Each structure stands twice: as structure tokens, then as C-alpha cells.
Automatic annotation (TrEMBL):
Requisite cofactors: pyridoxal 5'-phosphate
Enzyme Commission number(s) of this protein: 2.6.1.19, 2.6.1.22
Pfam families: Aminotran_3
Pathway(s) where this gene product acts: Amino-acid degradation; 4-aminobutanoate degradation
Protein name (Swiss-Prot/TrEMBL): (S)-3-amino-2-methylpropionate transaminase
Catalytic activity, as annotated: (S)-3-amino-2-methylpropanoate + 2-oxoglutarate = 2-methyl-3-oxopropanoate + L-glutamate; 4-aminobutanoate + 2-oxoglutarate = succinate semialdehyde + L-glutamate
Enzyme's top EC category: transferase
Keyword annotations of the record: Aminotransferase, Pyridoxal phosphate, Transferase
UniProt-listed PROSITE patterns: AA_TRANSFER_CLASS_3
Xref: PANTHER family: AMINOTRANSFERASE CLASS III
Amino acid sequence: MIVDNLQCTANDEGMTSLSPLLKQATPVVVDHAHGSWIHGTDGRDYLDFTTGIGVTSTGHCHPKVVEAARDQVGKVIHAQYTTVMHRPLLELTEKLGEVLPAGLDSVFYANSGSEAVEAAIRLARMATGRPNIIVFQGGFHGRTAAASSLTTAGTKFSAGWSPLMSGVHLAPFPYAYRYGWSVEQAVDFALTELDYLLATRTAPDDTAAMLIEPALGDGGYLPTPPAFLEGLRERADAHGIVLIVDEVQAGVGRTGRFWGHQWSSITPDILITAKGIASGFPISAIAASESLMGKGWPGSQGGTYGGNAVAAAAGVATLGVIEEENLVQNALIRGEQLQAGLQQLQEKFGPTERGGIGDVRGLGLMQGIEFSTSDGAPATEIATAVQQATTGHGLLSLTCGPRGNVVRLIPALVVSAEEIDLGLERFGAAV
Ligand code: PLP
């Protein structure tokens, strides 16, 4: 089989081709990967600031994660958790207990972020007996039918396969840069609109949950202002609404705090985690108080592969590495270095009539660069061209945002100071 380009020759008789949807990927075919680096079948080395969309938290193939997974494969690969429990899941639960906020002492597992989002929504509806869910403009919560009904990070995430789940109400997100407001003004506006929504469209008695990311991910790498999260917490408490924080992309050290919501003073009722938790093995979880979690019934959640043993063992190793190598602190410091370097580039390549760097923002190793024209319009073509050019310069990056005009950089939590400098040099060359 020839695997050095996106056409795979499956056998001598016929050509098997990847779906056209997959050919949108960069032309890089990974041969092997370590730490912050992807080595292509083209013989080139790429500095990976995409980490499989924020997944390979401890870097590619961290030796301790590899060893844990290898060891587990020889013991038990799969044992369905509603039939028999297995040791890695118990160990992962114990490890998560060390980092979960006080009060969120009960954990349930699935495979992906979307499934965990759905599990959280089901739980909130079962616990409250109420139908409606409030989501915030620009939120991304996944691609399954229910998760894409909750997603407003761009029309492309639901166009063509509606109608979706009903009972979803959309409230504004405090997007200060877009409207030229201060953060306080944006928070004020968004909370006033939320109160109006609760007074007119979905009464508190009909509202099961509010679902928010600690920093918008696919919606444009916008940190959620702490005051906004605190405003949501007040309203959730006042009305018995379940506050769900989707930490799928922002959690597990990514923002320089273990959980993204820890930049604020709130504790959510349900926390959703996935991606970085197992360095690339598919596993996700929701955490809540035992009393809230008990409102579901066995079999109302999960699926055949949920909480897979090998993925759980990789999760235990991942959390161990994050602790031993002080990676949350590394994310904070390297994030500051990255942001400072990007701000220097912003000074050099600010918006022109055609477009330039209008805004640099983010928390820790979750940094977004928004491209705008001098009159503030989204400069999507420039952002796309820059993102594509980074590959040629040996740096992998991604775009995001409802208009696709934000380039996002998501290095591994193990990234070094030298790698950040090199990434900035390559990003600058692409701009
Ligand atoms: N929630 C957030 C915040 C995400 O960023 C994503 C994926 O990017 C999801 C949910 C969905 O996760 P998955 O793609 O694993 O289903």
C-alpha cells in the first residue's frame, strides 16, 4: 500500500480514494510524531501547533503514555463498564478526583466530546424535568445531532442536516473586540440579553441548563470573561438551572489553569472533559455531584466503548505526566511568551485595507489571531492564506471563528521556549 500522498493504492486491482471531505486536510501525511513535532512522509519536519485540535496534551507519543497503553493492551483492551469494571477506569477516576473542583465528586465516561455533551444535556433534563437549554453565540459543542443543535460557531456546523434537536435557545456571547466595546460593556450587554431571554423566550421553569465554554474554541478563541461566568452562576442558582461548563478544548491545563473556568470564581454543576485528558486516546467524561449524577438511571448514559481500558490507562499516564512535569505552569508561561510574540507581530502587521492582525487573545496555550481589515471587517481570505502558508514554513496551524478569520495556535503543553520562538518566527514568515 502506498501511503505517501492522499491517494492510497489499496491493492493491485483498484484505487481506493479518501472521501473528498478528507482531502481538505493539509497535504502532510504523518509518518511518525514525537513531542511538538510531526515528521512527514515527505521527509520534512513540522512544528505541530495544532495537536490534533488540542488533543495531544503531553505531546505526541510521550514515552510514559506509550508505555501505559502498551502495557494495558496486554492486560485487557475492552471490558464494558456496565458489565464489569476495570482497573484503569478506577485509577483514572481517582486521578481525576485530585484535580476536579470540590463537589464534583462523581464521574461518568464516554468516548468523545460530543457524546459527553449529550450526556450532560440528558442529565440536566432528567434532573430538572425541564426541556430547554440556553447556549451562547459562537459556542462549539460537537457534531452529533444533539451536539450540533447546541453549536453556533458557524452555520456550516448545522447547514444541510436540520432540523435538529428542539428546545435550544441562543443568547449573545460577550465579544468585546467585534463591537469595539470594553469587556465590561460586552458582559453587561450579554447578561442583560440573557435576562431578557429568560423573561420572554424560555422561562426559568422551562430551562434545564445553560451550556458554555470557558473560552470559545471553534467559535474564535475568545476567553469567556470571568464576570460573565459569574453572572451565569448567579442566574443558575437563582432559578435552579444547571450550569454546564464544556471544558473539552479549554480543560486539562490548556489555558494555564487546570480547568479553564478556574480563571473565574465559579464552580459548574456539570463539567465536561475530553481531548487532552488522554493525549490522543478517545475518552471523555462528565463530572457532577453524586446527587445530581444520581438523577440519571443506569443505561441512560454511555455506550459500548465508553471508558475504554486502554484509553483510561493512557488517561492515568497523561494526568501523571501533567503533574510530574508541571505542565499547567508550563502552559501558562509558554502561553505568555507566545502571546507577547504575537502582539509584536500585530504591531508590525496590523490591519490594512486588505487585512492584517486585528486582535491577539487567548489563555495559556490557546491563542487566537483575528485577521480584520482597517475598518474592522473580518479578513477571512488573509487568515486562510496565512494558515495555509504556515505549512510551507514548517508550522502546522488551524483557523476558527464563525467567519474563519481567526488563526489558532494550540501547541502541546510540553512545548519548550525554543519551540515557541521557532513557531513565532515561522508564523511571522507566513504572515
Ligand atoms: N466541545 C468543545 C468545546 C469542542 O471543542 C469539541 C471539539 O472540538 C467538542 C465539544 C466535540 O468533541 P468531539 O469532536 O470529541 O466530539
